[in-house]
């Protein structure tokens, strides 16, 4: 791609997320496997950029063969009736709480409005999706220049694909789809050892006491190994008694047989020790579950941790039977890259994702 010598890039400010987004997963994250499948027009900026995980940037003086280089999805100026639209496959099937439609750096070329439709499909084929039955989950909503538009979704069904409509044309820097993964384990074989807390299997971060550095505790459940020290859960330096913790909901209730605690890239700031508590919870709210978690039975007693290492525990685990939630404790503070809870799904209680 030809360009002039670019100036220093300017990065968009992060969104000031409401509680419903903070307690959700970005279902459109490419780390989960989300993908932009099609755009009616992406002449100025290819649609795949709209799902990039890093903040949108603006590079003064950077041009390509079609014009000003923009970090997002941008269609050309429409000179006929109609509007532009794009198809997105979510990383995992999920119930959507809301969206961040981010028009950062699009000042005179943002769409005046956006609407979003959803469907459930086993196929990513564009022609199949064009013919699918679509449900509007976000009605046409006004957009403004260079801003995060945090828009709630009232629909409580689970979806796999989105159709993003912009009226009539323009650019979106980033699309975040905040929600809760569902399903993933309903077809697990009875004796299969699976990661019960993995995000792609429906695992969810219920609460955490701190996440001053890097991502929320949800990063513990992301697919694959951590990429760097910023790709994990890291708390501040604790200056008072106590310890840091997070509460996680399994993708489906099951029996945990192996735990892996990965401190990759955390070398001078890994926790000194960790422990895991667990319970089967059949009701309550996130707040009540968090309170109850202080009194759950110990699944893994306190264990010493080391820098930049994968710690595996099998014999150390208590036999608690079927559990649905865990409380992961770190002492006194620090950073952990990934947590894997390997076990077997309880056949009578696996979620269906419906």
Structure explained in plain terms:
With 354 residues, the chain is mostly beta strands. The chain has 2 domains: 10-181, Sandwich (Jelly Rolls); 194-345, Sandwich (Jelly Rolls), CATH 2.60.120.260. It is 5% helix and 41% strand. It contains 3 helices and 25 strands. The protein has helices at residues 19-22, 126-130, 286-293; strands spanning 10-11, 25-26, 35-39, 57-58, 63-64, 67-68, 73-74, 84-102, 113-119, 135-142, 148-152, 158-167, 171-172, 174-181, 194-195, 204-208, 213-214, 233-234, 244-262, 273-279, 297-304, 310-313, 323-331, 335-336, 338-345. Strands 2, 3, 8, 9, 10, 11, 12 and 14 form an 8-stranded antiparallel sheet that branches. Strands 15, 16, 19, 20, 21, 22, 23 and 25 form an 8-stranded antiparallel sheet that branches. It has a 3-stranded antiparallel sheet with strand order 17-18-24, with no helix packed on it. Strand 5 and strand 6 form a beta hairpin. The longest helix is centred in the last third of the chain and has 8 residues, at 286-293. Mean pLDDT is 93; it is low at 350-354.
In short:
Helices cover 5% and strands 41% of the residues.
Helix and strand sequence: EHEEEEEEEEHEEEEEEEEEEEHEEEEE
CATH topology (fold) name of the largest domain: Jelly Rolls
CATH class of the largest domain: Mainly Beta
Distance between the termini: 44 Å
List the helices and strands and how they pair.
Blueprint (H helix, E strand, L loop, with lengths): L9 E2 L7 H4 L2 E2 L8 E5 L17 E2 L4 E2 L2 E2 L4 E2 L9 E19 L10 E7 L6 H5 L4 E8 L5 E5 L5 E10 L3 E2 L1 E8 L12 E2 L8 E5 L4 E2 L18 E2 L9 E19 L10 E7 L6 H8 L3 E8 L5 E4 L9 E9 L3 E2 L1 E8 L9
Antiparallel strand pairs: 1-4, 2-14, 3-8, 5-6, 7-13, 8-11, 8-12, 8-14, 9-10, 9-12, 15-25, 16-19, 17-18, 18-24, 19-22, 19-23, 19-25, 20-21, 20-23
Family: Belongs to the allantoicase family.
GO molecular function, one term: allantoicase activity
Keywords: Hydrolase, Purine metabolism
């Amino acid at each position: 791609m030809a360009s002039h010598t670019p100036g220093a890039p300017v990065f968009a400010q992060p969104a000031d997320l409401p509680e419903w987004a903070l307690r959700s997963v970005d279902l459109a994250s490419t780390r989960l496997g989300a993908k932009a499948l099609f755009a009616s027009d992406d002449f100025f900026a290819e649609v795949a950029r709209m799902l990039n995980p890093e903040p949108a940037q603006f590079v003064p003086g950077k041009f390509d063969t079609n014009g000003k280089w923009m970090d997002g999805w941008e269609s050309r100026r429409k000179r006929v009736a109609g509007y532009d639209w794009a198809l997105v496959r979510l990383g995992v099937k999920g119930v959507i709480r809301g969206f961040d439609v981010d028009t950062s750096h699009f000042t005179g070329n943002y769409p005046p409005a956006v609407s979003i439709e959803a469907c459930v499909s086993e196929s990513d084929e564009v022609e199949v999706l064009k013919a699918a039955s679509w449900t509007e989950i976000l009605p046409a909503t006004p957009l403004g220049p260079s801003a995060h538009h945090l828009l709630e979704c009232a629909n409580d069904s689970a979806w796999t694909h989105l159709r993003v409509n912009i009226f009539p044309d323009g650019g979106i820097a980033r699309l975040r789809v905040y929600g809760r993964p569902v399903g993933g384990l309903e077809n697990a074989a009875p004796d299969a050892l699976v990661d019960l807390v993995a995000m792609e299997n429906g695992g969810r971060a219920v609460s955490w006491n701190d996440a001053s550095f890097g991502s929320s505790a949800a990063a513990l459940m992301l697919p694959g190994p951590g990429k760097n020290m910023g790709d994990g859960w890291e708390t501040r330096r604790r200056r008072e008694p106590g310890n840091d913790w997070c509460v996680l909901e399994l993708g489906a209730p099951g029996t945990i047989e192996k735990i892996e605690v990965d401190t990759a890239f955390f070398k001078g700031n890994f926790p000194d020790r960790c422990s895991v508590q667990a319970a089967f919870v059949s009701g309550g709210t996130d707040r009540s579950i968090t309170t109850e978690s202080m009194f759950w039975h110990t699944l893994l007693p306190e264990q010493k941790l080391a820098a930049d290492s994968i710690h595996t525990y099998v014999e150390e685990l208590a036999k608690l039977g079927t559990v649905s939630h865990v409380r992961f404790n770190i002492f006194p503070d620090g950073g952990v890259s990934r947590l894997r809870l390997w076990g077997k799904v309880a056949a009578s209680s696996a979620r269906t994702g419906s």
